[in-house]
Specification:
The chain is elongated. It has helices at about 60-70, 85-95, 105-125, 150-155; strands spanning about 10-20, 35-45, 75-80, 100, 130-140, 145-150. The longest helix has 19 residues, at about 105-125. It has a six-stranded mixed sheet with strand order 4-3-1-2-5-6, sandwiched between helices. It is of the alpha/beta class. The chain has a domain at about 15-40 and about 60-140: 6-pyruvoyl tetrahydropterin synthase/QueD (Tetrahydropterin Synthase, Chain A, 2-Layer Sandwich), CATH 3.30.479.10. It is built from four helices and six strands, in the order ββαβαβαββα.
Length: about 160
């Protein structure tokens, strides 16, 4: 299902989540701890508007925004296979950093993770009426990654007339 398979689409942007990470396998400077102020843009879709004329009521997204803040605001992100993970955990226990462990801290993987969060939220709170079909995860003004996929439960639910 492509974005043209639904009638309505909108986006919501969440910004200013300063955090740091490293890509320990990278041969260049990305292997060092470095930070960005991450931001996220979510694209939502529906076949019909709700009773208020919305695809999704942006004020209902506060739990999603809270999850973004909890995961990315002033945190240190480490890959689950980082050889220094025990050291990062000790620094976390000592109060020197607020550790979050992810399978992969890269923006591409992060875009997919937050896409999953958005769709879990929408499936529970909108009963599948709307979905998130795309997320842009931005680490700064010039670098971003996107994950784009319509969740299978939305594809099965939607019957697009020929």
């Amino acid at each position: 299902m492509s974005s043209s398979s639904f009638e309505y689409s909108c986006s919501k942007h969440f910004a200013d989540y300063p955090c740091c990470h490293r890509q320990w396998r990278h041969p260049g400077h990305c292997r060092f701890v470095h930070g960005y102020s991450r931001s996220f843009t979510f694209w939502f879709a529906a076949q019909a508007l709700d009773e208020f004329g919305f695809i999704v009521d942006f004020s209902s997204l506060k739990p999603l925004e809270q999850r973004l803040r909890q995961e990315f605001d002033h945190t240190f992100l480490a890959n689950s296979d980082d050889p220094l993970l025990d050291s990062w955990r000790k620094l976390h226990e000592q109060g020197a950093l607020d550790l979050r462990v992810m399978k992969n801290v890269g923006m591409e993987s992060t875009a997919r993770v937050v896409w999953e969060w958005a769709n879990d939220f929408l499936l529970k709170n909108q009963a599948g009426r709307t979905c998130c079909w795309k997320v842009e995860a931005r680490e700064n003004e010039v670098n971003a990654a996107c994950f784009e996929k319509t969740p299978p439960w939305f594809e099965r639910k939607v019957k697009v007339p020929d």
